[in-house]
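Supplementary Methods, section 5.1.

A reviewer requested that the exact input to the structure prediction be made available. We therefore reproduce it here, unchanged from the version used in the analyses.
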Amino acid sequence: MKNRTDIGTGVATLGVCLLGLWGLSTIENTASTTDPVGPVAFPAIVLGLLVLCGLLQIWQGFHMERAKNYWPASPTFKKISLFILWFLCYVGLVIVLGDVFAQSSVAWLQENMGFAVSTFIYLLGALYLVGRRSAVEMILVAALVPAVIVLSFSYFFQVTLP
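The structure derived from this sequence is encoded token-by-token as follows.
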């Protein structure tokens, strides 16, 4: 065993896949002749890819040398930590704003606005964290990305976001 960390990560990934497979077994498959892809198809594909990644991680653990230094340099570690914290704030903001807009009496605010506003705010902060400083670029990207996602889910997939 050359790299126990990679092997352990691969085994943990396979463990998560087992939990996912158990979760899939609890979903009723409603696929029919008119709709051959049921609610199990996409999660099954993702779990299959995750199994491949876990197996690749285990293989890599047996064949690659152990890394000398696992931790990134201090400035990089701080930026990663800040990004994780910012993402967790984003998840909370989606939940809170989703509830706030869902209780609105204005119909067009009830669907997708929590996600759209939260994603706009998140992208502004994320772009700043990665070093973008052009206000025009930040605002355009932060406005267009959630707009495209919301339109895609609303019109193509007919799914309402929080």
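The chain has a mean pLDDT of 86. These observations are discussed further in the main text.
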